[in-house]
Every structure is written in structure tokens, then in C-alpha cells.
Design goal:
single chain, about 300 residues, alpha/beta, 8 helices
Length: about 300
């Protein structure tokens, strides 16, 4: 792994930093760089250009002259593309120029761009040590460090003093580490990092802290068949004033509970009703009032159940 000197604002060495070979030491991939940069520039296009077709140009609704007998070429509208002031044939319309670029290509392009700048000695790590915004100090630091031309400055999001010091300098482009991209690296003559923004090839965590691994869980042998995790059974819903099933068929009523409830339709059936015998009970109630209090409705309406219940 290569090392680089950490400089202060005066250009003096204060420490050293490691440059990851996976980011700063690979052979640049020219084809991927070209494709990624082209896609990035295409995505910047607004795509708002627009021309009017013959259907969108005002006027031209009447035929300019009759079809035959005039000696002139037949015409149907003065807004045809061949007419002055007519519509545009096959003209541009608003559209998106964005190109889909695989994430692996984007990362490879960034590594190629950083490696190209590092091979030319155009990468620096500087600790500016600015406590308050001061553009004159920022301009003086660029001169002391020998940074001529366009400079890409990669800062921490919370480094407000350095950010405000360099933001008014026209040849300095500032970005945070998460916004670093191949195009900005290639158009810059120098890439300057602070000690806290030097990138590494370590994978980023998307879920916060890593979960602890339980080492007491036995590891299956290589020859054992894969074991599928058992699906968790949903917990039964308890309704007030209800009774669970006595048998699996749902035909045997518990003592004192004769009203059948169906959880799929949320209907209840009283003894002697039209569908009472054909209904498989999923829950039993002692009275119709208990079933209604649990959110169930009478099957066929309250009058049908009441008539059957009274009968």
C-alpha cells in the first residue's frame, strides 16, 4: 500500500497517510471511463428542446387551393413542413438523455480516475487547519502548496470553515467524499483530500452497526441437507365473549356457545338459520350481541337471523 505525505497549509509535512491500492493503484480502464463520463454528461442535459409539428402550428386548416385545375402542385395545408412557417418534420421533442450505468462500472471509473491522478503525482492530502472562514488564507495556501490550475477539494460535510474559505475561488471545486465522481476527478488538475476524507475500498455499511454473531449455534456439516426455517404460525385472535374450537371440524359446539362465527367473512350464524348446518365454525359465541361486539355481522342481514332465531 502506497503512502503519501500529509501537508499543512504552508506545504510542510506533518504526517503520512495510506493510499489504498484498490483505489489509487490500478491500471485505468479507458473504455469504462469514457462510457461513465459520457453518461454523466448526458444526464446533465435538460432535454427541454422542442419543435412544433404541423398539427401543433396555428392555422392551416383550410386547403390552400383546389386539388386539380390550377397547374400547381397539390397542397393540403399551408402548415406542411415544406411551407415557410409550417411545422417541423422529425424535429426534437423534450426527452431524458439519462443513461443507465451499472454501479460496478461507476466504481471502476472512479478508481481509474483516482489511479490516473495518483500515478501523475496529482493527489495531495492537506490539513488546512482553518478555524474561521478566510478566503485570503485559502488563496495563500494554494500558492504555498503549488496547486495551479483546477483543484478538486474533497472535504467533510462538517468542515464549514474550510468550505466557506474556498467556495469563492473560481478554480476550486468543492465536494464531499460521498459525491466524489470520475468526471470531477478528470477535469481537475489536482485532487486534494483532507486527512478525514481519503477514500478506502472498505464496503459501506447500510444497516448501522454490525449484528453480533451467535457462536453457540451449531454449524451443519457439509453433507447435511439444507434445513428450511419453519414458518411462524400466526397467533390466534381472541374475541371478547367467544370460545375456541373444541374439535378440528368446527361442528361440536361448546356448552353455552351455539352461535357460529366465520373469520373470513366476519359473519355469524344463529342455530336454525339457512346456512347454519353448512357453515364450519371458526369461533363460537354465546349470543348474537357478543358476536356483534366482536365485529361480526349477521349473515344475510339482521332480520334474516332474527327470524330464524325466533323460529
Amino acid at each position: 500500500m502506497a503512502t503519501i505525505d500529509v501537508l499543512d497549509a504552508k506545504g510542510k509535512k506533518t504526517a503520512t497517510a495510506d493510499l489504498d491500492d484498490a483505489l489509487f493503484g490500478i491500471e485505468p480502464h479507458q473504455a469504462v471511463l469514457h462510457q461513465v463520463v459520457t453518461a454523466q454528461l448526458a444526464a446533465h442535459r435538460s432535454g427541454t428542446q422542442s419543435t412544433k409539428t404541423r398539427a401543433e402550428v396555428r392555422g392551416g386548416g383550410a386547403k390552400p387551393w383546389k386539388q386539380k385545375g390550377t397547374g400547381r402542385a397539390r397542397q393540403g395545408s399551408i402548415r406542411s413542413p415544406q411551407w415557410n412557417g409550417g411545422g417541423v418534420a422529425l424535429g426534437p421533442k423534450p426527452r431524458s438523455y439519462a443513461q443507465r450505468t451499472p454501479k460496478k462500472m461507476v466504481r471502476l471509473a472512479l478508481r481509474s480516475a483516482l489511479s490516473d491522478r495518483a500515478s501523475d503525482g496529482r493527489v495531495k492530502v492537506v490539513d488546512f487547519g482553518l478555524d474561521a472562514p478566510k478566503t485570503s488564507k485559502a488563496r495563500a495556501a494554494l500558492g504555498d502548496l503549488g496547486l495551479d490550475g483546477k483543484v478538486l477539494l474533497v472535504l467533510d460535510a462538517g468542515d464549514e470553515a474550510t468550505w466557506k474559505s474556498f467556495r469563492n475561488l473560481t478554480d476550486v471545486h468543492i465536494c464531499v467524499a460521498t459525491e466524489l465522481n470520475a468526471y470531477d476527478v478528470l477535469v481537475a488538475d489536482w485532487v486534494v483530500f483532507t486527512p478525514g476524507t481519503v477514500p478506502t475500498d472498505a464496503p459501506l455499511s447500510r444497516g448501522g452497526a454490525a449484528k453480533a454473531v451467535d457462536t453457540d449455534v451449531p454449524t451443519p456439516d457439509a453433507g447435511d441437507p439444507p434445513v428450511k426455517a419453519a414458518a411462524a404460525e400466526p397467533a390466534p385472535v381472541a374475541y371478547p365473549g367467544s370460545h375456541d374450537l373444541v374439535d378440528e371440524d368446527g361442528t361440536e359446539a361448546p356448552e353455552g356457545f351455539e352461535i357460529k362465527g366465520n373469520e373470513d367473512s366476519m359473519k355469524f350464524h344463529v342455530p336454525g338459520s339457512q346456512w347454519y348446518e353448512q357453515t364450519k365454525a371458526e369461533v363460537w359465541f354465546a349470543s348474537a350481541a357478543d358476536a356483534e361486539a366482536a365485529g361480526f355481522e349477521p349473515a344475510g342481514g339482521a332480520e334474516a337471523q332474527a327470524e330464524e332465531d325466533d323460529a
